[in-house]
């Protein structure tokens, strides 16, 4: 089991989508921290509290990007990814991004 | 291979930079020459020769995007179009009695851009004529712009100092502002501007800390952080899509750059946060990102004309991207407008090119949208969040 605390392991100020956007972008968090943890196996707990906030671009690139970049499938993420936050709406938002990315990936593979 | 010494390397770097600045200056001049000439009457108020022969740009008495938008846009347009063609100019603030925070930030952004592209030196115009002439003769090869801080209204002087205009113009300790001891209590406090090219969440955090030092704890702070960071991300992705010499820009831009600031009106208990870029504007990027067909379908459904303002309204709607990246493009309506939905009484203004979109919301009431067409282009995009701070929150 791996636990990632965004505010302490990555940054209190996550912002931006791609690495070219800035130093603490969603792409960077996904590629440097989250994807390796998923690849290592076992469940992954992502603790979201403590950061200043999460823009939609950051969240979508991190979690939707897991599906798009084929780091994990939707079913696998449902089993191993655990999101921890005092803000329930934040967790709902992230789940929406994962579902939308999975639906888009399914559409591409069928089409 | 011959080894280049450190001094030669530094000299070469300097020469390359000077060549690049010269190249950008000549591009801007060529671009300005291609534009149609304005009738004299339109900018005669701002174009008067001072006694020293410099072209003078007179800042009007009320310089506010809220109460006097035409004057603000006219002056900024004159600065953008005239300065590439002239050697020295004079920014005259003598008439200015009221300046709004948005107008101040737009002026700071314009001056910041000029500072990067020219080797202009700002000088405080000394009252001593002999000193002025001596300094003039020493600096005959430099282009110069002048301001006269001694002639400023004291409240305006303090506000511009708070905003950071004098830092941009490289002027130290303007008159009447001495080590934070205020000559006069200002009704509106401005917050020092911040400017960068990337999405830097920490800068949003610093601005919010400055705001909290004025008014106390911010409501829903994380949502404001999301709104500002999304605005920065939008600039990275959409505001400057073309090379700097493209005619889509109002002037040669500082590619990728944005400016961020805020203000607090003590009397009205109203906080303002402003975010500015000098890109090609939402009305020009939207058809590329969302497709002309989608845009036309939305505008037709609303029964309104296709203007810059209606395109900004369309950008606030969720919609699919024409590229395969359907996961992108939600930041505007999701994050940027969201903060106004969570405060007690707030307003969002998005001004881009010649259009303005206003969104106002009070708790327990329906939201309201307004579309306004402007006389001139703002030359980029301005996002403004404005909300009332309750007495319990204010320190």
In short:
Chain A has helices at about 5-10, 25-40, 55-70, 75-80, 90-110, and strands spanning about 1-5, 45, 80-85.
Descriptive notes:
The complex is a heterodimer of chains A (111) and B (395). Chain A contains 5 helices and 3 strands. With 111 residues, chain A is mainly alpha-helical. The termini of chain A are far apart. Chain B has 395 residues and is α/β, with parallel strands linked by helices. In chain B, 41% of the residues lie in helices and 21% in strands. A 7-stranded antiparallel beta sheet of chain B has the order 10-11-12-16-13-14-15, with helices on both faces. In chain B, strands 1-2-4-7-6 form a 5-stranded mixed beta sheet, covered by helices on one side. A two-stranded parallel ribbon of chain B has the order 3-5. In chain B, helix 3 packs parallel to helix 4 (101-117), helix 8 crosses helix 9 and helix 10 (282-290) packs across helix 11. Chain B is globular and about 70 Å long.
Average pLDDT confidence of chain A is 93
Low-confidence stretches of chain A: none
What value does the Rg of chain B take, in angstroms?
Answer: 22 Å
Structural class estimated from helices and strands of chain B:
alpha/beta
Give the number of DSSP strands of chain A: 3
**Shape estimate of chain A:** globular
Percent of residues in β-strands of chain A: 5-15%
The order of strands across the largest sheet of chain A is: 1-2-3
Quick check: average pLDDT of chain B?
A: 80
In which order are the strands of the major sheet of chain B placed?
Answer: 10-11-12-16-13-14-15
Oligomer: heterodimer
Helix content percent band of chain B = 40-55%
Q: How would a textbook summarize the main sheet of chain B?
A: 7 strands, antiparallel
**SSE order of chain A, one letter for each helix or strand:** EHHEHHEH
Termini of chain B, distance in Å?
67 Å
Count the strands of chain B?
Answer: 16
Tally the helices of chain B: what do you get?
Answer: 14
Largest sheet of chain A: 3 strands, parallel
């Amino acid at each position: 089991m791996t636990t990632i605390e965004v505010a302490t392991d990555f940054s209190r100020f996550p912002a931006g989508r791609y690495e070219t956007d800035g130093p603490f972008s969603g792409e960077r968090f996904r590629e440097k921290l989250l994807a390796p943890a998923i690849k290592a196996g076992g469940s992954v707990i992502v603790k979201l509290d403590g950061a200043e906030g999460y823009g939609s671009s950051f969240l979508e690139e991190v979690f939707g990007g897991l599906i798009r970049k084929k780091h994990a499938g939707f079913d696998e993420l449902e089993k191993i990814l655990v999101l921890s936050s005092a803000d329930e709406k934040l967790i709902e938002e992230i789940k929406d991004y994962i579902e939308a990315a999975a639906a888009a990936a399914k559409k591409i593979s069928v089409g | 291979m011959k080894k280049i010494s450190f001094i030669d390397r530094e000299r070469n770097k300097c020469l390359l930079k000077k060549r690049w600045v010269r190249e950008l200056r000549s591009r801007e001049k060529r671009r300005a020459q291609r534009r149609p000439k304005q009738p004299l009457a339109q900018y005669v108020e701002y174009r008067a020769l001072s006694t020293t022969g410099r072209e003078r740009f007179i800042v009007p008495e009320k310089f506010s995007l809220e109460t006097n938008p035409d004057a603000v846009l006219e002056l900024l347009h004159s600065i953008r179009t005239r300065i590439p063609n002239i050697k020295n100019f004079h920014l005259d603030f003598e008439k200015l009695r009221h300046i709004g925070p948005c107008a101040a930030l737009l002026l700071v952004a314009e001056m910041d851009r000029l500072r990067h592209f020219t080797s202009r030196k700002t000088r405080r115009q000394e009252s001593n004529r002999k000193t002025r002439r001596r300094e003039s003769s020493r600096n005959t090869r430099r282009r110069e712009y002048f301001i006269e801080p001694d002639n400023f209204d004291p409240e305006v002087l303090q506000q511009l100092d708070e905003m950071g205009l004098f830092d941009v113009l490289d002027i130290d300790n303007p008159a009447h502002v001495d080590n934070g001891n205020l000559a006069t209590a200002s009704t509106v406090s401005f917050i020092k501007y911040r400017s960068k090219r990337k999405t830097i969440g920490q800068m949003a955090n610093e601005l919010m800390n400055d705001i909290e030092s004025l008014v106390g704890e911010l409501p829903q702070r994380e949502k404001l952080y999301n709104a500002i960071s999304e605005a920065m991300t939008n600039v990275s992705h959409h505001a400057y899509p073309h090379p700097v010499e493209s005619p889509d820009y109002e002037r040669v831009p500082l590619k990728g750059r944005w400016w961020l600031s805020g203000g607090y009106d003590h009397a009205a208990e109203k906080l303002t946060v402003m975010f500015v870029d000098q890109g090609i504007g939402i009305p020009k990027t939207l058809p590329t990102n969302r497709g002309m067909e989608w845009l036309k379908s939305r505008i037709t459904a609303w029964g309104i004309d296709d203007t810059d303002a209606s395109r900004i309204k369309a950008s606030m709607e969720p919609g699919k991207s024409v590229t395969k990246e359907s996961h992108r493009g939600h930041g505007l309506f999701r994050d940027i407008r969201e903060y106004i939905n969570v405060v007690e009484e707030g307003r969002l203004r998005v001004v881009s090119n010649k259009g303005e979109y206003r969104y106002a919301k009070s708790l327990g009431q329906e939201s309201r949208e307004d579309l306004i067409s402007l006389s001139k282009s703002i030359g980029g995009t301005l996002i403004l969040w404005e909300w009332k701070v309750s007495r319990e929150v204010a320190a």
